[in-house]
Amino acid sequence: QLVSALEEHFSAEQQLNNIKITITAGPTREAIDPVRYISNHSSGKMGFALAAAAVAMGADVTLISGPVQLATPIGVKRIDVTTAQQMHDAALAQATQSDIFIGCAAVADYRVAEVAGEKMKKKADSALELKLVQNPDIIASVAALTAKRPFTVGFAAETQNLLQYAKDKLARKKLDLICANDVSGTALGFNSDHNAVTLVWQHGEQALAPQPKAELAKAILQHIYAQFSAN
Amino acid sequence: QLVSALEEHFSAEQQLNNIKITITAGPTREAIDPVRYISNHSSGKMGFALAAAAVAMGADVTLISGPVQLATPIGVKRIDVTTAQQMHDAALAQATQSDIFIGCAAVADYRVAEVAGEKMKKKADSALELKLVQNPDIIASVAALTAKRPFTVGFAAETQNLLQYAKDKLARKKLDLICANDVSGTALGFNSDHNAVTLVWQHGEQALAPQPKAELAKAILQHIYAQFSAN
Question: Under DSSP, is residue B182 helix (H, G, I), strand (E, B) or coil?
Fold first, then answer.
């Protein structure tokens, strides 16, 4: 009984042996000028927790991270980027060498159309229009690969109509699975150490209870692996 | 000789006894929607170094800080804020109770005209115009006080024409002294532990060599105190 418990333990622990996983994490930053930028509230904790859990489960993990204040989990290969365009380029280069791609980063949808080379000066009593243009859609680009396409997992962080948006995003971007993440509260999600998500795939969904991001990460990876194996 | 050296040491150390100083530090964050924001590259290190040095020199220090990843120096009263408007309100409340006000924060000049209550959805293939309106000018508001006006010190962080902008700003905002800070390089200034500034006042200027922010902070405070006392 001890032996079978140990076997079960180790098989669960090493479930992702020989699996290559690329994970994106954190925010991106889009420069307005050398001093100012547009960003978002992602702390990177969920993506880093996924990377740490995947390594613990035996995977070969590459973590592409925007600017965050987090230490690299032991055993993880880390690629640091700042902008969405940089993350896009790194992600596409890694994706075709990966079995599973998890887009956990909160990528800026828009960047400033023309970045000022010098700090913009305030103009007296005037308003300002900032022209923004769309960034490349990283997760959709990965999912659209026709050769060497990895099993592609996205995140949907929403403040309203969460499951509906998540299902739309799954279909529209041709993802294999999506982690729907309600960020309307303050106790969970961005900057928190706890989180709750609902996993959605084409023929099913599974709600995971609120729990520490480290434990949630392991549960998410087990579900991803189950769907990846069934594919 | 030892006694006089010690006396000099302690008189320098306690130079700011009974002086009340308010310091602003760090960036401000201006929400675009619940997820996205505009901010800037200030780490808050220079303002926090000034607060720590001022306490060590005997001052009664209040530090008004935007979102940063820094511990509060021992003995410093800290007020946390997020937006420029919040920093403005806290700064004006503290300024009239202070002998010296040092505006070291990198305050966002602009905020979004209408903050979206829910996360904005990306629109297919479309650009976006973000309408920005000016924030209140904190340092100019403090310098414009007619009753209980503190000795008012500003910072000018620029990537070009540094001294010219700093002198213009000193005169235009009616500051008593300005610390001109070249942020065009990467080795000094934002996010660095080192910095170099040139102090400018109405009838003089003084360049301070590149040095750790902790030492630079002490040198800046000694110059501020000299001008404050001469006033």
Answer: strand
